[in-house]
Amino acid sequence: MYPENKIEQKDKVEPFKDVDLIEGKYSRSSLYKDAWRRLKRNKLAMVGLGIVIILILIAIFAGFIAPYDPIMRIKEDSSLSPSREHFFGTDLLGRDIFSRVIYGSRISIAVGVVAVGISVAIGLFLGALSGYFGSVSDAIIMRIADIFFAFPYILGAIAIMTVLGPGIVNIFIAIGILGWASFARIFRSSVLSIKNKEYIEAARALGASNYRIITKHIFPNAMAPIIVYATMNVGTAIIVEAALSFLGLGVQPPTPAWGKMLSESLDYIDIAPWMMLFPGMAIVITVLGFVLLGDGLRDAFDPRLK
Amino acid sequence: MSVDTNNKVLEVKNLKTYFFTDEGIVKAVDGVSFDLKFGETLGIVGETGSGKSVTALSILRLIQQPPGKIVDGEIIFDSKDLLKLNNNELRSYRGNKISMIFQDPMTSLNPVYTIGNQIMESLILHQKLDKKSAQKEAIKLLEMVGIAEAERRLSSYPHEFSGGMRQRVMIAMAIANQPDILIADEPTTALDVTIQAQILELIEELKYKTNSSIILITHDLGVVAKYAKRVMVMYAGRAVEYSTVDNIYYRAMHPYTMGLMNSITRLDKSKKSRLKPIEGSPPSLIDLPGGCTFKDRCVYSREECGRGIPPLVEVEDGHFVACFRVKEILKELGRT
Questions:
Q1: Which helix (H) or strand (E) holds B9?
Q2: B8-234, what's its fold?
Q3: What CATH architecture is A33-62+97-305?
Q4: Which chain A residues are within 8 Å of B20, Cβ to Cβ?
Q5: ipTM of the complex
Q6: I need a labelling partner for A205 at 20 to 30 A (CA). Which of A13, A99, A137, B289 fits?
């Protein structure tokens, strides 16, 4: 006799249920969410992000944080070393250096963000023009970019500032104009590789216009390297601003700017080193913050690049 | 050929698409003519580089320019010549009255947008729907192409889908505006065999639902045999044979088509019979041999084949062949 050919009930395989998916336990992942996850794991990048966030908060709430007016001179308090009343000491004119450093962050952050914003805007526009339409516009734009690359950054900034004259708006313009070429090149190369992707052809086959293809389809796919480079470039812009202010071409006194504070304290480095130390450190920490964040973003957006 | 001309949805006449490269002019499509009738599936077959995809892309003028250029021809749709339209007019046809399904579903969807977003795009673009009704329509479309839990899937990204599902999404996008013509450019090449059949069945089914006609481009002769009504065989940028599926498969007349048929594995033939390949390889499109482009590989070629390009002639009712020696060859084979 053959044994009865019955399938035992308990051996029945449970049908696969996509419970986790249905209940939304898997978070939707996208390029930016993945990048954020990787960024969170990168300790140095998180330090950079922390510095940047704190700095922005300091710049916004400078009025609440600073204990003294940054411009008010108190003659009898001139050249005091750091103490409980004046954390970072005072300068020659008796101004509180701590308050000046706090307010100085506004200039640096503003220059970093606005100037790089101008660079990005010009760079994206010309880069898209160059990469998407190619031929003559590409040749012309890229040759102009080459000229900008050949020009030393600081020297170029000095030249422009000499023509425009000192002042914060002119700093925005000078640094903004000088930085576009790298963004244009980066964006151009992204556009070149993306415009031949099949989904762009598919979008065109669906009736999308050139404008729509560039802004809606190419742009979001090409943003990652721009975000990375812009973050790092904020640091560079801050340094250039500091250099310009140091040379007297940037922000004019009595407005507190870190670069200007450095140059003012240059002659007293041996008798009152704190005058130079604190604004100098502010510049270093700020730039470091942006560079660390930029580095982390680069790794986060493209884990293969490491 | 007794054809009701009103019945034609699309007519391509003497299409010539060349690519101007540094090495020379690539004549990717060189004088191709065909028509598409209402509700029919027209198959375009040919090997890689025979110009079948370029033909399809030329219909919607999606050829990269430069280096590509449609140098001659007419594409009549809706009693208008698509080649004479300006860019705005052309865009209103693309994805609306004529739409396309691409070869590789893995790369044809934009990775940064959700599926819903991409389907809705063409609805918003052409039907000017608002977001809400576009979303409803998108859910309907996803259900139509057989994607379960359509509403939830709307917010998925392409990388969360398998290849077959992505191709379904591509199809949903293509039929979103109920096109008159659906051009399927090797829609199943990138998919595995079981999914291939499903996708082709789906396309066929949707053809009836949306009242469209299909141009099916493939190098898979089996696919063409099953789904197409008429077939155009292309070789080196030209049509060599153009007729009904039965004529092509059972009464092939052009030596190239005969060669293709001989090189199909057949389950009904004995195991001992060997496949007969076509000797040689296709000519470079830059430096085409004078005369018949197939003559160097053709077992029937004679000196006369070098004299000019053989025109596509109607050898029998509705059966067009581009070969100087077709009559003699048929006689040789004992088929007259």
A1: strand B8-21
A2: Rossmann fold (3.40.50)
A3: Orthogonal Bundle (1.10)
A4: none
A5: 0.76
A6: A137
